[in-house]
Amino acid sequence: MVEYRYLGKHIPRVDAKEKVTGKLLYPSDVHFDNQIYIRVLRTRYPYARILSIDTSKAENLPGVIKVLTHKDVPGLNAFGIATQDQPVFCSDYVRYHGDAIAAVGAESDEIARQALLLIDIEYEILEPIADPEDALKPSAPKLHKNGNILNEKKFTKGNVDKAFDESDLVFEHTYQTQRQAHCYLETEAGVAYFDEEGRLVVHAGGQYPHRDVTQISRILNIPKEKIRAINSPVGGGFGGKDELTVQQYLALMTYITKRPSKIILDREESFLSGGKRHPVKITLKTGVNNDGKLTGIRFYALSDTGGYASLGGPVFNLTVEHSVGVYFFPDADISGHCVYTNSGFQVAFRGFGVPQSLFALELQMDEMADSIGIDRLEFRKINLLKKGQKGAIDNEFPLSIGSLPIVEEIYKGEIYKNRKTLTKSTKPHLKRGVGFALGLQGAGLGVGLPDFAHTKIKLIEEGKFKLLMGTSEMGQGNATCFTQIAAEELNCDLSDTTYILGDSGLVPDSGSATASRTIYAVGASIYFAAKRMKEAILKHYNGTKLEIKSGTIYIDGQVKHTLSELYKEKAFETTGEFIVPTAKECLGDGLPHILYGYSGHVILLEVNTLTGEIEVLKAECYIDAGRVINMQGLQGQSEGGLVMGIGYALTENSIVKNGYYQNPRFATYIIPTALDVPIDISTVAVDVYEESNPLGSKGIGEVVFTSVAPAVANAIYDAVGERFYSLPITPEDILLRLNSKSKNRENTLCPQ
Amino acid sequence: MSTVKTDKNTINISLKINGKEYNINVAPTETLLNTLRDRLHLTGTKYGCGEGECGACSIIIDGELVNSCMILSPQAEGKEILTIEGYENDELIRKIQDAFIAKGAVQCGYCTPGMIMAARALLSKNHDPSIDEIREAISGNLCRCTGYVKIVEAISSINKA
Fold first, then answer.
1. At what angle do helices B149-157 and A631-650 cross, to 10 degrees?
2. Alpha-carbon Rg for chain B in angstroms
3. Which residue of A has its CA nearest to B144?
4. Fewer C-beta within 10 Å: chain B N or C terminus?
5. CA A562 to chain centre
6. Which pLDDT belongs to residue A746?
7. ipTM entry
8. d(CA B22, CA B41)
9. Which of A20, A266, A665 sits opposite B100 (nearest CB)?
């Protein structure tokens, strides 16, 4: 077996030092002495017609430099990754609580805030479409010119009605998931300025600089070459900064005033204006035979994208594609709608539509197993989809499938093995339960969408290999992994490398930091660039084995030069490319994926039946990452994904009532603190090698999250014998359910 | 978050930050967070919410952990203010930083300076905290990336070598 220097090891992050010292400048930290402070006027109404916009009083306030409205947009007054239906500034209608109407640029933040109060908007207030079911009614107002349906899907395989008729048991429930906020610690922020080459630079928290350039170019109606986007580092993204957030205001303000500009959203503004995870209502009918074999599935999902599309269409595609989870159903009827409403605005979020489907399916899997009297894990195992079988939408799974190795590892894990003793309660009111769930997550963008990565390696004067990648570093750790991959191939010290990420003016286009694709695609690309660099250096010296130690080059064991000396002799620059493989046949609209990452989550928790409180005591995460590049990074992603999943399961809910946000603050939108999560978390990387990748790796940024919430819900059932079909499951829900039960019992026992 | 550039209606104060005296004009209602970030460009202290809920702006004043968004700059006159930038003269902060790096307690890094200050406030009073004491001490600091496990491990590893 090959012994690796770096791959698979616990390697500390290459950017950790500048982060722990506070020296790293995030977009919100960059400052220019003559910067203009931007504040955005956002509507208080979820749905209204704009009758007039009067900015004259604001413009006359001393210190105000520019007030921007739709009239100031030279190009397309709209943006959106997939569908450009969201106005930069609303001109006729506002469609969600937080929609932007104007932006003030002023000499100070204080003045900009004051000026917002001086802008007069006259509205005709309209009755919002609060509920996705109302959006489908023929009487509903059309929120966009093509109506209220953003995406509609229908796939059938076999004859599911016949399958249900012939099944021993059939189950049907309706599940509801909630709107989750990303809660990156750095709010949407950034600066814009002109660089020495006269390019408009927009440096903001984002996830794909080259696409920011495309969107800004459309808005300003200027060529892409005149725009440079910098997206790294970012204080957390999780999908929420994939879409434009503040780049459009920065770009316009600096383009028009020719002065640097800066914006930092307040937390409340971030909660109001920012996109969320799609709430989805799922009606799920499944059939099973007494031998434990699944027979058929009918799945209908209604997803709420809110006021605008962004990636709502593709997100919904994944909801549908992942409806059968990791299991094989011979017959299937999968359908649904993703609709516009006036309830917030939903975007990409870690999991990208998949956690909603898995929540429904994994709860029903437990219920089916219990009803036919089969062990819940065994039941899952006998129904796992295998290579050669087809998925929900008749899609194939030609690449590695990690679900069986995950199940085998769960059997060996402490929680499953000791579940009987672990769930013994210590006090009568404390009930313990174990729950698990399996998950998967399509990687890459799907069929027909350009999904490639370009990278470059240059030998530079300082005697280092400079790695150039388009990817944003939002905390995932990809800079460290890319460095490891290059250093492994070049057989050099990590300190013999340096890197630039996420600056469209300096690095090649590596695609978006989304869809669990950066390690898989960009990692592969940097591997090829490093391989070519190694070959070029070996050719130069006419040698066969390269080693570099602290900048000194050894060829076949002999000292040759330092890297600085080599730089003076010849320019070395190589490129790497990787194209993500896709299915041969498109099943519509980018579907399906062929590469999937897999997960399994096992949860031990305790429910206090007097207070309804739920404490997660212990968790095991089983992840199919293909070959692991950095074990420390994998654990970090896994632990973070688990905790975000616990928040999704138990506390987080961005409540929108009749179109109005109710809890846009950390005081009322509760994410887990260090006291709310278990410290006893283990991560097991199962032994899978992904052949389609030169490193054998897959991405794991999302799959670490997707199966957490159903595992928690299943553990709650295991503890108290009650099934909760909507998220989050709060202490109030538990108490209400338990109290109503005990009351009924009292009534039966003691009739009045 | 708020920034005042105008010198009208400002008052002159002296702040002692990381051992250094700063004589500056601030608005009477200016938060220490804004003074640190926007006037002094000490941007290691981060803005996360501006209302004392997230801990990204945590600093130490006279040995106590404080959300710098919750205190006005004039109130900090005459006090010893320690921010993340003070690490070069603070051995305990450097130890915590090294532990955070070694244990993988950093991801996006935006909560990290505040988290390190919370650990510094704890460890200066309690040299050998229990796991639960560590969790309690950092419970005012939100992190969305790490799940806290490696942060607790990092703090726990200090003084145990």
1. 120
2. 16
3. A184
4. C
5. 43
6. 53
7. 0.96
8. 12
9. A20
